[in-house]
């Protein structure tokens, strides 16, 4: 799957980084021109900020399959964290440094990727290595390793 | 040892039911599979919970986004976000096992 990485993006809000990554996906035809607005709207009603164990927090803004042409994962590392509302408590906020925007076309084939992405979230050392990586290629490589070899591989996933 | 399980049903709810609910459902399924306990997991949008309860009648609702007590209709609601962050994941799993009437295994 295609992974698009941008490092040290300077934005001042969650909406701004959603637009940034969404436009990146749209320019490359991964998503339709409705994707950005749909993602912003979804984030308002059901936010995706996640507070993680190591203190490098993540957000997972996304939109429905109808706004997607082909699967991809767009990743932004922010120069300074921006505030996302928390998924489990939309009334509170969390400063987010790593933003992962999945373009999901077929949830059943994307699920392995998402489950392994979550394993990346759960590993403070991997999150730290994403923050310390010096190039886009390095980030992509860390993610590709995480998405291919981490726990969960080989276990039965029928029905998901 | 746990008692012989009956038909366990879990409803997993999130915003769009395409991404995070799928991940949480997968993680719960893994945990039950590991213990060889059969489980039926259905996903839905948070806004569909009330309707899904009527047709699916789950033992427990695992929700990544808050679900009101009214929508849950007296069913226990457990926060699913620990399955995405790892923070409190074992505790969440333990709560799910308890909610479906299974003694949580010691080596969870």
- Sheet/helix structural class of chain B: alpha/beta
**What would you say the CATH architecture of chain A is?**
3-Layer(aba) Sandwich
Count of separate structural domains of chain A: 1
What is the CATH topology assignment of chain B? Answer: Rossmann fold
Q: Please provide the count of β strands of chain A.
A: 5
- What is the rounded Rg of chain A? 15 Å
Name the quaternary structure: heterodimer
Sheet with the most strands: spatial strand order of chain B:
2-1-3-4
* Helical percentage of chain A: 25-40%
Strand percentage of chain A? 15-25%
> How many structural domains are formed by the residues of chain B?
1
Order of helices and strands of chain B: EHEHEHEHH
DSSP helical segment count of chain B: 5
Mean pLDDT of chain A: 92
**Mind telling me the CATH class of chain A?**
Alpha Beta
Can you say what the CATH homologous superfamily of chain A is? Mannitol-specific EII, Chain A
Unreliable stretches of chain B (pLDDT < 50, length at least 5) are none
The dominant shape of chain B is globular
Q: Nearest-angstrom radius of gyration of chain B?
A: 13 Å
What is the CA–CA distance across the termini of chain B?
Answer: 13 Å
Description:
The complex is a heterodimer of chains A (160) and B (108). With 160 residues, chain A is α/β, with parallel strands linked by helices. Chain A has one domain: Mannitol-specific EII, Chain A (3-Layer(aba) Sandwich), CATH 3.40.930.10. Helix content of chain A is 39%, strand content 23%. Chain A has five helices and five strands. Chain A has helices at 14-27, 35-45, 107-121, 124-132, 136-149; strands at 2-9, 49-50, 58-59, 72-85, 93-103. In chain A, strands 1-4-5-3-2 form a five-stranded mixed sheet. The radius of gyration of chain A is 15 Å and the shape is globular. Chain B is α/β, with parallel strands linked by helices and 108 residues long. Chain B has a single domain (8-99), classed as Response regulator (Rossmann fold, 3-Layer(aba) Sandwich), CATH 3.40.50. The model of chain B has no long low-confidence stretch (mean pLDDT 90). In chain B, helix 3 (69-72) links the parallel strand 3 and strand 4. Chain B has a four-stranded parallel sheet, with helices on both faces. Chain B has helices at 20-34, 49-56, 69-72, 82-85, 89-99, and strands at 8-14, 39-45, 60-63, 77-79. Chain B is globular and about 35 Å long. The chains are: A alpha/beta (160), B alpha/beta (108). The interface between A and B is medium-sized, with 35 and 28 residues.
């Amino acid at each position: 799957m295609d992974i698009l990485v941008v490092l040290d993006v300077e934005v001042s809000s969650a909406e701004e980084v959603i637009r940034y990554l969404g436009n990146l996906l749209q320019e490359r035809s991964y998503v339709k021109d409705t994707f950005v607005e749909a993602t912003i709207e979804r984030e308002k009603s059901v936010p995706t900020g996640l507070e993680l164990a190591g203190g490098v927090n993540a957000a997972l803004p996304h939109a429905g399959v109808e706004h997607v042409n082909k699967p991809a994962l767009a990743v932004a590392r922010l120069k300074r964290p921006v505030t996302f509302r928390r998924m489990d408590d939309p009334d509170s906020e969390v400063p987010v440094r790593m933003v992962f925007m999945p373009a999901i076309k077929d949830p059943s084939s994307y699920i392995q990727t998402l489950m392994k992405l979550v394993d990346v979230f759960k590993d403070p050392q991997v999150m730290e290595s994403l923050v310390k990586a010096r190039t886009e290629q390095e980030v992509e490589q860390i993610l590709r390793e995480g998405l291919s070899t981490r726990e969960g591989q080989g276990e039965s996933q029928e029905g998901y | 040892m746990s008692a012989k399980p009956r038909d366990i049903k879990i409803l997993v709810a999130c915003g769009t039911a395409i991404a995070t609910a799928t991940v949480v459902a997968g993680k719960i399924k893994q945990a039950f599979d590991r213990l060889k306990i059969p489980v039926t997991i259905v996903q839905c949008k948070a806004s569909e919970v009330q309707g899904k309860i009527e047709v699916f009648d789950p033992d427990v609702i695992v929700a990544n986004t808050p679900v009101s007590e009214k929508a849950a209709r007296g069913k226990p609601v457990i926060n699913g976000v620990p399955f995405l962050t790892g923070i409190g994941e074992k505790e969440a799993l333990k709560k799910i096992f308890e909610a479906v009437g299974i003694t949580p295994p010691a080596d969870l």
